[in-house]
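Help wanted!
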Amino acid sequence: MSQPEPSRPAGKNGSDASKDSPSAVRKFLLSRGNSAVADRSFQYLMSLCAFSIFGIVVLIFVELIGRSQMAWNEFHFRFFYKTFVDTTTHTVQFWDPVNSHFSALPFIYGTLVSSFLALALAVPLAIGVAVFLTEMCPGLLRGPLAFLTELLAAIPSIVYGLWAMYVLVPLLREHVNPFLVASLGWTGLFNDDNPTGLGFVAAAIILAIMILPIISSLTREVMTAVPHSQREAVLALGATRWEMIRMGVLRNARIGIVGAIILGLGRALGETMAVTMVIGNSPEIHRSLLSNGSSMAAVIANEFAEATSDMHRSALIEIGLALFIVTVIVNAMARLLVWAVTRGAPADAH
Amino acid sequence: MRTGYKLRTRFRALADHTATAVAVLSTLLVVTPLVVIFGYLIFRGFSSLNLAFFTKVPVPVGETGGGMANAIVGSAVLLGLASVIGVPLGIGGGIYLAEFGRGTKMAYAIRFTADVLNGVPSIVMGLAAFSLVVLPQGHFSAVAGGVALGIMMVPTICRTTEEMLLMVPHAVREAALGLGVPNWRSVLSITVKTASPGIITGCMLAFARVAGETAPLLFTALGNQFWSTNLNEPIAALPLQIYVYALSPYDDWHRLAWAGALVLIVLIVFAVSLVRYVTSRGVLKGTS
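Answered by r_m:
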């Protein structure tokens, strides 16, 4: 408690008690009075509500561990890296629920590729936007732009997915993918073997659009927390505005910016609906970024309701457990980094 | 403050101008597509929206027309169930953080856990609700969907409630305590009541967020093509219906999906503007 507990008069007799030391009568009344019991139980009740948040985390963890036991007992850590070779066709397979072949490898690959590609697209732009909004933007524009950012961060992922399916994917199919194949095909990363327009590139672009508002608004928050005196000191030494931003602001805020980026990564790793709708959903690993793939969240969304066997379900829950543990670690790291910068600093430092 | 310095070399001036140009350009590059997306969604939604959308249930494949009335009601039922779990726990947690735990290590731990829980993918919440409710029950149900959404609401409401309570000036609390009001009464009738517009809008925002969640409902509420308000049966939900229709090959169903998306967006715009209104020029400001 930061504020001193004000002494409470106990009933009508409270005013008679001496100021320095509460009389025995008052102590007695306080301890047996209605408010003492009510206050204490109220506080316990509220603490219980707060502790329920710990409870939820533990509950999720325990449930997922319990329900994925079957797959864990069968595969152990091999679940995350093994491959199968089909006996008749001699092709490499990862995920074949009908023949009880379960390996999370293609989903881990898909999640990592789409998320990091999205980060590569989103981070430079997000930092540019944050710099513009905090250091250069005329005050008139700042409000509407901040509002727009907030709004876009709140739009449901199903809506982004709908847009991506009917606008982004045709656009990629008709114009962008042929261009990528023609200009960057020699790298081997862009192969012309997928005529649908779905795939990692589509997933990464929609993910980038979805995490941009999150990264840029957090970066802005962190940059705003840098004290004004830092800027003034650099400017007083004769720096230009860019030098002031680089030396005075970005350098001081860099830990927090890394935190914001990691938070965006956490969001991208767990994003389900939009990715499911555009990634193509095939459990394969290809070098080409234009080919179909799948991600950890996408495979759960796609197959869980119609899981063919208990082992299939258990394997999907194990993927979910892995996703849970990874996102908890990523988010915890990001929060610690952002807090390290913003803690103590006044939110409206300038 | 920024005008008093002199440019000493051409290079530094150039770097400064380049950086400004890059920042402005990236803002444009980000804002333009986002505005285009937003405009397109609103355009497509409005051109597909009609009265039947709100009054009719889905029709079988091949027939035109139909609406999402059952999905809208289903979403409302799910939100109602979710708020039974999410609102009391969230507000209670927020009261603890702001009134009792202020500055303690425990409060930091809870705040931290809430923030981390906020970042856990919604599909994981769905898995948890599946193994908590669906497996023991043996069938998909509205209750399971409500549990999944309710769990997701707790951390959001908890944090916004705390923020709103922290905006209430100390003088208000002290005045109540000075008049001999017991602490619990002062918290509930004075502090929470003062902050109630903010707390209510915080709940609204949490509603709007989970109203658009699809992933946790895929294998809890499951969706339903028919009219149902039975809590023990699979129930339709707006985002689920959008998902099913978006993946379908029929133009008429795509049209309904766009209309559904518009409804979700309007809900979000309403909630976000309400929060901004309350926190910025606010009902709370008059009290300080």
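OP: Thanks! One thing I noticed: Chain A is about 70% helix and 0% strand.
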